[in-house]
C-alpha cells in the first residue's frame, strides 16, 4: 500500500542527541518531496515542531490533532495546513490512527510510548492493519526492541514481531510504497 498520509508519534521535547531533531527534519523533507501528508500531534516544540516545520518549509501538507488541554503545554503550531482541536487524548489518538495510512515512531517519552502501544495492540487485535515503523535513531529504542523480543520469546504474542513492526535507523531507510 502506498502511504499518502503518515502519522508520526514523537516527543514534544528535542531530547539530548542532536541527531533526533536532524532525523525529524530529514523525515519532514522526505515527506514533502514525496507529497505525503504529515499527521501528528499538532505541537510546535521539540521533535514535533522539527518535523512539522521541515514539511511546511518544503511546501508540504501537515495535519495536527491536539486536545484543548495540551494547546498550552505542547504549544499548538500556528502555521499548519489543518489543525483539528479535540476534547481529549482518546479522541486525539483515534483520529491520529484513522487519518494515517501508516505510523512512524520517533524518539519520545510516555505519550509516544502510549500511542505506540495502543496502535500496536489494535494492530494485533486486527482493529487495523496499518504498517508500524520504529525509527531507532542511534539505538534509542534498543531496550524497547529487546523487551518486545522477550515478549515474543516467552510466547505472549500471537504473531511474529516482524509481522507487526518495521525497524529502521534513519529516515532514508523508510519504504513509502
- According to CATH, the fold-level topology is Rossmann fold
Counting H and I runs of at least 4 residues, what is the number of helices?
5
What is the CATH class designation?
A: Alpha Beta
Total number of distinct structural domains: 1
Short description:
The chain has 177 residues and is α/β, with parallel strands linked by helices.
Please describe what this structure looks like.
The chain is of the alpha/beta class and 177 residues long. It has one domain: 3-Layer(aba) Sandwich (Rossmann fold). Helices cover 38% and strands 19% of the residues. It has a 7-stranded parallel beta sheet, sandwiched between helices. Helix 1 packs parallel to helix 2. The longest helix is centred in the N-terminal third of the chain and has 17 residues, at 18-34. The mean pLDDT is 94.
Which secondary structure elements does this structure contain, and how are they paired or packed?
Layout: E1 5-9, H1 18-34, E2 37-40, H2 46-57, E3 62-67, E4 82-86, H3 89-99, E5 102-105, H4 110-124, E6 131-135, H5 142-153, E7 165-168
Parallel strand pairs: 1-2, 1-5, 2-3, 3-4, 5-6, 6-7
Supply database-style keywords.
177 residues, alpha/beta, Rossmann fold, seven-stranded parallel beta sheet, 5 helices, 7 strands, globular
